[in-house]
Amino acid sequence: MATHESHYTLPLPQFDRPVKLLIVVAPYYKDIADNMVAGARAVAAACGAEVDLVEVPGALEVPTAIAMADRQANYDGYVALGCVIRGETTHYDTVCNDSSRAISLLGLQGACIGNGILTVENRPQAEVRADPAGQNKGGGAAAAALHLIALSRKWAGQTKGIGFRA
Ligand SMILES: Nc1c(NC[C@H](O)[C@H](O)[C@H](O)CO)[nH]c(=O)[nH]c1=O
Ligand SMILES: CC(=O)[C@@H](O)COP(=O)(O)O
């Protein structure tokens, strides 16, 4: 089994105004999803963020639900959670690639999203990544969303070129 080098983790951002996060989770593998939600909730709580949660059937529906919420609701950011485990067919690649690409495109359009959709070969890989006491990828996705929200607030209302001398 591969060993994993630990990586540097940014300190969590601090906020002077309330933050509202939406967790969108696909509980396709329910125990895995439950652990990721627990990790994400703990990180949100550490930043004082309020959390709502909605469930969708599978990873492919996660970006669609985030896009709907971003149009119709008032969340500051989103945590995308789920797990895709390779099966016998090429469907794995479709679910992994399309969910990831759609989430990235929503991010480029301005939504603050942490992507915590696991894409793994087997269940043990998913379990260690979902475990809040293990790799805690749910917590990492929540932290990513919170960092983007902090950046978005830092630059809100700024106009290009103002404040610089030519
Ligand atoms: N195989 C996995 C799926 N597949 C289902 C799709 O995400 C989608 O719900 C369906 O195609 C209907 O649009 N979803 C997962 O979250 N994880 C999988 O391993
Ligand atoms: C990741 C998947 O979509 C997978 O569960 C589908 O399994 P299969 O390729 O065996 O149909």
UniProtKB/TrEMBL annotation:
Single GO MF descriptor: 6,7-dimethyl-8-ribityllumazine synthase activity
Class of this enzyme: transferase
Protein's GO biological process: riboflavin biosynthetic process
A GO cellular-component term linked to this record: cytosol
The entry's keywords: Riboflavin biosynthesis, Transferase
Binding site for (2S)-2-hydroxy-3-oxobutyl phosphate: 88-89, 129
Involved pathway(s): Cofactor biosynthesis; riboflavin biosynthesis; riboflavin from 2-hydroxy-3-oxobutyl phosphate and 5-amino-6-(D-ribitylamino)uracil: step 1/2
Database matches in InterPro entries: LS, LS/RS, LS/RS_sf
The enzyme's E.C. designation: 2.5.1.78
Pfam family, one: DMRL_synthase
Reaction(s) this enzyme catalyzes, per UniProt: (2S)-2-hydroxy-3-oxobutyl phosphate + 5-amino-6-(D-ribitylamino)uracil = 6,7-dimethyl-8-(1-D-ribityl)lumazine + phosphate + 2 H2O + H(+)
Active site: residue positions: 91 (proton donor)
Binding site for 5-amino-6-(D-ribitylamino)uracil: 28, 59-61, 83-85, 115
Family that this chain belongs to: Belongs to the DMRL synthase family.
Function: Catalyzes the formation of 6,7-dimethyl-8-ribityllumazine by condensation of 5-amino-6-(D-ribitylamino)uracil with 3,4-dihydroxy-2-butanone 4-phosphate. This is the penultimate step in the biosynthesis of riboflavin.
Name this polypeptide is given: 6,7-dimethyl-8-ribityllumazine synthase
Species, as recorded: Pseudotabrizicola alkalilacus
Biological classification of the source: Bacteria, Pseudomonadati, Pseudomonadota, Alphaproteobacteria, Rhodobacterales
